[in-house]
Amino acid sequence: MYRTKTCNDLRKDHIGQTVTLCGWVNSRRDHGGVIFIDLRDRDGLTQVVFRPEEHPQVSEASHALRSEDVIQIVGQVCARLEGSGNAKLATGDIEVIASKLRVLNKAEVPPFPLDDPKVNEDLRLEYRYLDLRTAPMLRNLRMRHRIVKTTRDYLDERGFLEIETPVLSNPTPEGARDFLVPSRLNPGTFYALPQAPQQYKQLLQVAGLEKYFQIARCFRDEDLRADRQPEFTQIDVEASFIDDVEIQTLIEGLLVRIFREAKGVEIPAPFPRMTYADAMNRYGSDKPDTRFGLELVDVADVFRDSQFKVFRTILDGGGVLKAINAKGAAAHLSKEQLKKWEEWVKTEFGAKGLAYIKWSVGGEWESPIVKFFSDAEKAALAERMGFVEGDVLFFGADKLEPACEVLGRVRLRCADLLGLVDDTKLNFLWVVDFPLLAFSPEEQKHVAVHHPFTRPNADDVALLEAGEYRKVRAVAYDVVLNGVELGGGSIRIHERALQAKIFEVLGVGPEEQEVKFGHLLKAFSFGAPPHGGIALGLDRLVMLIAGASSIREVIAFPKNNRGVDLMTHSPVEVDFKQLREVYIQSTAKKG
Questions:
Q1: What is the pLDDT of residues 273-332, one digit of tens each?
Q2: What is the mean pLDDT of residues 373-385?
Q3: Pick the CATH number of 12-105 from 1.10.1670.10, 2.40.50.140, 1.10.8.60, 1.10.3720.10
Q4: Is the predicted pLDDT of residue 576 greater than 90, yes or no?
Q5: Which CATH number is correct for 292-421, 3.65.10.10, 3.40.50.970, 3.40.109.10, 3.30.1360.30?
Q6: What global pTM score does this model have?
Q7: For the residues of 77-144, what is the DSSP string, one character each?
Q8: Bridge partners for 97 per DSSP
Q9: Number of C-alpha atoms within 13 angstroms, CB side, residue 495?
């Protein structure tokens, strides 16, 4: 046996026993010839002591040990000297007096100190196998394991079957580019890696499986950010003969169980529910952070007859005028900083500008637009917004969604500036009644807000038939935690005629329907049950529970923000022979 105990096993009860331990040298200290080693394995640390007066040859050999050497030691468990214990360690009351030492592998000097939290991320990713030895990464991966196990146990108890779906499949309309895989056996054709198992899990319902789940690998070729990777994992759930409230209740129970077992926290259920319209109007986001107020306020009626042409033109054109009051922000925002905020919303969100009014303590209203307001408008605005000295007002004036979205981003930035966010809170909610369709100016057609398999609200089917597409609500729902979307789902369409109608509205004609979705439409003609489901982002969920700042911190081998694996140097160029075998010719220029 390589070892009889791990480095986190030993306690006072083991004093006097002879044990064998294996692990890495975490640190080495020389106290006048007596060598102290903190021996580390996956489970923890044990202090090992090499005493020259007891075992001179072993002690002499220990002088050559360095950080990250892999060793095996045999020794007796002893109590630490009084006053020398380490309360921070589970094994802090004992130490092992080494009588034998075997060096299993010497280590070169690591490229960075493993205990330094400020190491450059690219360097950490290049040597990820070393980074994974650190306590934070080990803790995150343990938590990920517990969350996955809890999920499997919870869904298994409720009769769900874990079923794998293909990784090589057809392109799916999930809102991002597909990763394509050429087929050698079928020249000129391609598989697509799944953005989600959407059609397969629906087909499993047609097959009569009724309750499916999968810890599903998904792939999307899109720009990256802290909570996005080209390959990611979701908890995928689908069931038959179920409605939206039942699915939400199921997922609430799952999240309660996950937070209890992974974090030791009890979260209340059921979660609050908020319509998409309310979320946008009040918070400027379809995933609102409700840990603080700072809500958007409608001030359109204040300026309905205003002489300020910018506001008046927007309102006369059917737009909206919203405002937020960043109370106390005047002390934090200079005129130069407010100009930078205006450039930020222009650059990041394509806004035309960011109107504001600053009321410094002891001063007057400061803003380029105040001179256009009447005294009555100023009085009504101050009363509506609770505007007093020291505050800053920000305005969103545009069509409903862009105005609310920009002001919603400003809201979040104000909350950070003013320290309004309570990180100890866990504010869950469901956002429901999403629009089914949205018009895309770029594509000049309607697109699905969630995906084209989402069921329209039964009360709005007449609007769909009448062509009033933007008024049609979907039976769709997102679960949100502290302003982060944990997952989303919907009740699906299960009738062939209705699904074909939605495809038609989306500009997918009968011939294209047959090519892309013929298998699904055909399946619906053989008795498809009512069904629905949801997908939770596993990486994002683990990130939030672990308190990490990026999903890269909870994935064993992630890509960096350029989609590159710095450890294996992928993606890589492939040679001409490999390309020829799959009938591909590269036109990319090297360098």
A1: 999 999 999 999 999 999 999 999 999 999 999 989 999 999 999 999 999 999 999 999
A2: 95
A3: 2.40.50.140
A4: no
A5: 3.30.1360.30
A6: 0.92
A7: EEEPPTT---TTSTTTTEEEEEEEEEEEE--PPPSS-TT-TTS-HHHHHHTHHHHTTSHHHHHHHHHH
A8: 49, 76
A9: 6
